[in-house]
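Q&A log
Question type: sequence-to-structure
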Amino acid sequence: MPIYAQKYNKKKQELEQKRKELQQKIEETKRVLEETKKKQNTSLQTLNTISAQIKTREKVINNIGQQIFELALEIDESRKQVEVLKADVVNLKKDYADNILLAYKSHSSIDKIIFIFNAKDFNQAVKRIKYLQQFNDYRRQQAHLILNTQKSIIETINEMIALKRQKMDLAGIKEEEKKELEVDKKEENQVLNQLSAKESDLRKEISNNEKAANKLTQALAQLIAKEIEEARAREEARRVAEEARLSKLNPKKNGVIIKKDTKKTESNTFVQSPESLKLSNDFVSNKGRLPWPVDNGYISEGFGVHSHATLKGVKTNNNGVNISVRKGTSARAIFGGAVKAIFSVPGMEKVVLINHGEYYSVYANLQNVSVKIGEKLVTKQSIGEVYTNEQENKTEIHIEIYKQKQMQNPELWLRD
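Response status: OK
Response body:
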């Protein structure tokens, strides 16, 4: 494979893999949308699903555009390579023709014999014989090189034709995706119009969601604060015990009294053991590469403040991300750690809190839990089943990530 082809091959494979993953997410949203429509009840979940599908389809279109751009670069490199090879062939043929002409002028065997016997001594005669052999070998090599270069030109042209065909195929797929995008946007507008007539129901739903989220936030704040205090107390106890041990073993050294460390750990300080520190560092080193808390699904609501899709002037806030999945989907730990709490919140169902050093991951909206407090988990270990709202036909997990008491955007930590 030519160097320029190797240069683009890896990038093309990555882009194609990404496109397949995005297409898989579109299939997921389609399936969820079909299930939701069976209820014949247009809801905010329907709108979120369509919106998620639109975002994913836009990513697919951008991905295809990038693939087409990479192919255009590769085709251009192929074209340049063909021009270089053609120039090489011209030079090789000229050089070969000159050698043939020279050989023709001295083609006589007698001339060659005279050339050898005119040598001053035996050593020079041997050198002249070797020269004639090398000259013949050089001509054969030139002929072989010309044939190989011409073969390379044909191969490169065929590769260029294949690349152009790929480019055309991708352009066709891109146009189809654009058409599908227009269909999705029309459907989104239809759902928006239908939901606008249900303003009171939507406001009630938003209010209930906010209450549930606030209760979860309060519960997490208390639990994490308790964790930090317990870590601080353990460190304080260790420090006092260590001072007592040193004082008992060697209260004086060379007549100088050892000064005790009177510095105390502040109550707001999160103290880590060597094991905890390693776990924290491992968690940080995997930022942007952590697995999703479910095997398949799509983000139905992202992190942070969002303007409501239908209610003007209304904003909603999400401390984590919501991921829509299939009914019966298992939730799993995004990283190894210890289960610190299992509790329930009205509107958020069962919740699991997992510690990863100074980091925490939170899994809410679980129907049941298959782990227990204190249990040490490994990455991707199942922790329970995601809850399904049968009335709205919605199966959605809510995940949050904290660094001590600081909220993190899970989308920056999870693998894209």
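Response note: Helices lie at 3-38, 44-105, 109-117, 122-196, 199-249, 274-285, 410-413.
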